[in-house]
Design goal:
The protein has 246 residues and is an alpha/beta fold. The protein has one domain: TIM Barrel (Alpha-Beta Barrel). Helix content is 42%, strand content 17%. It is built from 9 helices and 8 strands. It has helices spanning 14-23, 36-48, 69-76, 98-115, 127-137, 153-159, 175-183, 213-224, 228-243, and strands spanning 2-6, 28-33, 52-56, 81-90, 119-124, 142-144, 162-165, 189-191. Strands 1-2-3-4-5-6-7-8 form an 8-stranded parallel sheet. Strand 5 (119-124), helix 5 and strand 6 (142-144) form a beta-alpha-beta unit. Helix 8 (213-224) packs across helix 9. The two termini are 14 Å apart.
Amino acid sequence: MIDTHAHLDALDDAEAAVARAHDAGVTRIISIGTDPTSWANTLDLIEAHESVYGVVGLHPHEATLTFDVKALTRLLGHPKVVGLGEIGLDYYRDYAPYDAQAKSFIYQLGLAKEAQLPVVIHNRAADEDTVSILRQWFDGTVVLHCFSSVALLDEAIEQDWYVSFAGNVTYKNADDLRAAARVVPAERLLAETDCPYLAPQPLRGETNEPAYIVHTVAALAEARGEDAEALGAQIDANATAAFGLP
């Protein structure tokens, strides 16, 4: 089983969390670096743990941040950095001006294209602009992280984007997400914790961690009428294809 999106560097004890994940049957984790400090921490984690891979990029909340482009491009060449992200647009929090977010998003799509890496997309309350930018500026592998924009489902299926569900798909009022999960093609389905956020229903209110991905996979399997172990293997295979994992 794999956790395709974890903020390991945001956990109080990443080392212990990785160990607990292994005990729970989680054999691989993709850790996300969202700003220069997070990139450095992610690099340390992927070099310290054989089972941990990295995805790095500038989060839309940080769109006005000045950073060393050369440092990011060097990281994109690291053999265990398997994607660029999470990047995109967030019109819900308003932590950065929309134009700055768009410029950062488009620029990083160019970096991903040059590096031939998939992109992990953060989209919140920005469906139309997210789709418009992706259509215009990127033709590679796209992962919709923490999928919650059900209005994007048809577009995602049409474009063969990967659709990744987090712990919120387990919530009692998330019938729309479970309905979406039922129609995502089996080969395009992913699962993530987005830890330390969005702990799944049985552990809601606790700090989330990669070991808890088992609850999200179980909820997805129930929604789809499938065996949880078989679905976990399918998601693992999907992640291997999406991120070019060994």
